[in-house]
Amino acid sequence: MTDSQQHRTTKYGLDENGHYLSGSQHPDWKDLLEPDMENARFGLWTVLSRQIQRKGRHIYAQVRCECGKEDWKLLDNLRRGVSKSCMSCRSKARHKAAGNMLVETPAERSLQRRITAMMQRCTNPNDKAWPNYGGRGIEFRFQSTKECADCLTSLHPAEDWKGFEIDRIDNSGHYEPGNIRRATPMTNRLNRRRTQWVDYRGVKVAKHHLWHLIKTDYPDFDFGPSKVRTLVEQGMPADEIPHYQRVGHRRSTTLKTPDPAIVSLYRDV
Question: Are residues 110 and 186 in the same domain?
């Protein structure tokens, strides 16, 4: 059957010759769109085929968005411009217009969540971390999540932040350009107010890491980490601890070995 004007009418039933007054009522046409509807564009939607679905008086067409998502959409909404794209593309367009961060990969989504958490603990008094951040004057000095994300990705791509943490170089400083960096969890844990430091061979070393450096430099050193911490607390200089002798008592021994990851924080190994 050709695509004639007769097929485009809205009349129903048969004429005096027994022909259908509307081509869309013919059994071969009642479940199909008209030929020129195939591959038709409605916003970001493209009609995939002439096949339709009927739900009562409503007609649904099978469409595909530019992002690849396929769906069935009400034909009337497509024609009136009510539906122009899938929800994901519509959300991205809205965020782009508002100047917000666009999240397209799992790495970007992870980075967005971390930035949001940073913002919350600095600005929301109801956040459980507020006392250690906003409560003591730490500020989030980026205008938006996107601005912070752009700053971080200028240092490293979003994918390269996996397994690393966002650390403030100055622990008493703010979240702002120049004071944030990518750090391992171990490095981040060191950069805390309660960390106690000692000078060992001209290097600033966390007290709970001192044993690992001494044991690396002096493999025959027989005292364990707890004894080293005790000597530091008693006021013994860190450089003298490797030569400590406990006169009249049996020296303690330990099978523990120094952690290369800890040693590498202070020197190249």
Answer: yes
